[in-house]
Design goal:
By secondary structure, the protein is of the alpha/beta class. It is built from 30 helices and 29 strands. The strands form eight sheets. The protein has a seven-stranded mixed β-sheet, covered by helices on one side. The protein has a six-stranded mixed β-barrel with strand order 22-28-25-27-26-29. A hairpin with a 6-residue loop joins strand 1 and strand 2. Helix 14 runs antiparallel to helix 17. The protein is globular, with a radius of gyration of 25 Å.
Length: about 775
Amino acid sequence: MGKTKHTGPIKLPAKPDPKLWVSKVPFGLGKIKPQHIRETAKIAWQNRDNLPYAYRILTQGVCDGCALGVSGLYDQTLAGPHLCTTRLNVLRLNTMPAIREELLHADIDELSRMSSTELRQLGRIPYPLIRRHGERKFSRATWDEALDTIAGKMRTIDPKQMAFYLTARGITNESYYVAAKVARLLGTNNIDNASRICHSPSKTALKRSVGVGASTCNYKDWIGTDVLVFWGSVAANNQPVSTKYMYAAKRKGTKIIVINPYYEPSMEQYWIPSIPESALFGTKLADDVYQVNIGGDIGFMNGVMKVWFEMEEREPGSAIDHAFVQAHTNGLEQLRAHVAQQDWTTLEQSSGLTRERMREFAELLARAKSAVFVWSMGLTQHRFGTDNISQVANLALLRGFLGREHCGLMPIRGHSGVQGSGEMGADPFSLPGGEIASAADRARIEQLWGFELPKWQGDIVGVTLENALLPEEQERKLRMFYTSGGNFLETMPDPAFVREALTSIDVRVHQDIILNTSTLLDAREAVVVLPAMTRYEQPGGGTSTSTERMVYFSPEIAGPRIGEARAEWAIYVDLARRVKPDAAEQLGCGTAEAIRAEIALAAPSYNGIQHLRERGDVFQYGGAWLCEDGVCPTPDGRGALLPIELPELRKPEGHFAVTTRRGKQFNSMIYSDIDPFNEADRYDVLIHNDDASALSLNEGEAIVIYNSYGSMHGRVKHADVKPGNIEVHWPEGNSLIPKGVYEKYAGIPEYNTAVIVEKAETYHAHKDTRYVERRIQELETEVE
């Protein structure tokens, strides 16, 4: 894939640069910002009962937070220690004691009154639990009883009626791999993972555009690139250590551009705690912010390319790297014709930006000799997410920003475990190192594993949930759902539907380290809870793959252990042997070391993982740059320039486009009701002052947001969000999002829709006269 090797960490400049300071007032006193020192002290106090173990986790283990890839306190990008509050907040999951028995076995109604945050704070799950239909409390079970209950059910149903799901909660490559193998051994392709609801369009789009399914570059490429673009990504909030890389990039003269409907404060300025200069005076990050409409990115990018093609007509070579395009791409003329027929009025309406602003960005990139494009859920969580990413790839291919230093395409991952999930085969479309649809990959894996793979196509997790409500006679009626982590009540659209689906399953298995609100739901026959180890407790250690394709070894760390918790991969192995005793020899996977040796054979790009065994061991698959020198791993070695149609964005009169955002949280785990960057409450609705004034809404006023899918009660929060658009927190706003709307290529749920905003008193005053229903019928058109 690439011949150049990563050259390791570089040093930051020693001399301060006052031009980048936010303020000369030390520590940003008086400003709205995270209080890192206070937060660190608070977290130290929370871990006071286990501080030595906490210290060993931080200094010896690989971060189980975001996917930047910090091993101990160090990474491969910058010299010096790195630590962020995201990692510190997650730390307590690893150090807290077991849940007290009187709480664990309390009446289910009492537990159900708690939020997931409160349930998390109860502690770790210490031993297997079972709650059968009609029982009001969890009962303690032996491992034999719990696993035999699960295995017994699996033996009585069609494999199409069972499904596995793995979240990204610190789960290792070893666990993903074994889960993928066990699922296929048991006869099902219904296995999915957390990337389905975050970055699945990134993999799908990059595969079709440039032939790879991961970041083509490194974090080091940020530092010194001419332009660093963050597209629908709030890295400062979700991957805080990345602000250190942004600081280093700024010191090298890099321009940082943010494209987002909301002018995110954390991307404009940040006080980076591990850089003394920045900790004192802050750092100006973004050089410019392009506030697009929600869903307006394709229109914006078509506008940028339209400017480029106009520039080319006047002066060939002024915008497009013709040498690169001619040697390494297909489809230029089709793309040129597609863009030429689009009119500026439509592009402006779709994107929300003027022709002049699109020209500014186009000319900036045309002048640049290098650029790195970074994106996250702002681009992927749409029903046209794959097209969004292929459009970004179009920009990179036209300018030759691929396969060389300071250039590349980077889907920045929000969790340390998720990059490896599909690469290990825990995906209905994937096998380790390949694809289900590939006859060659299927034959290769069947030969290695020694058994025949199921031939039918497995379901994505959203469809799996829908299958729980199929009629009894349907062959895909979901009867057994086995989840490793995850809480669909707080991650999927339409929570009421999700609740109905989860309670309609015969047997539901929650393999986890903590309880959450979904664990407490009833099932038709039984809910089984299995206590899992964290990555730091797993015998033989484990590996995880970072955003930049670094495969890190995280060792087993000495410290307290929780009751009867087992390594996740070991639980899968035990279960498979109970369901199919005669298949034990075929399964293998008896130790972590044996699993890594098998991964190296099953996934050729992971050859090298078998040698990882000590703290600090790491290798990068694919070299420093995928598609090095422009050569793509596609059948003809070329990237594809794809004409991308504008999505139809129907926003009826009186409606706002709405999307979800993250606050003080790690994925769905909320750590504070207040966002430290803008002081927004979890139920604050971010709305532009002009829009609020037009509706006679005052700051802090109670409002109701609603559509035909659901409603949400909130309060007005004036914010610099694109007029005509509003933002709500995730998952609080998921009640507004329709179920069953998936991106057609990657299957990610749609997390954007159109809503009506009204004063709460108006909404409730007319509710009994069916005013709301009539208002929806009059104004709302289904978004297709």
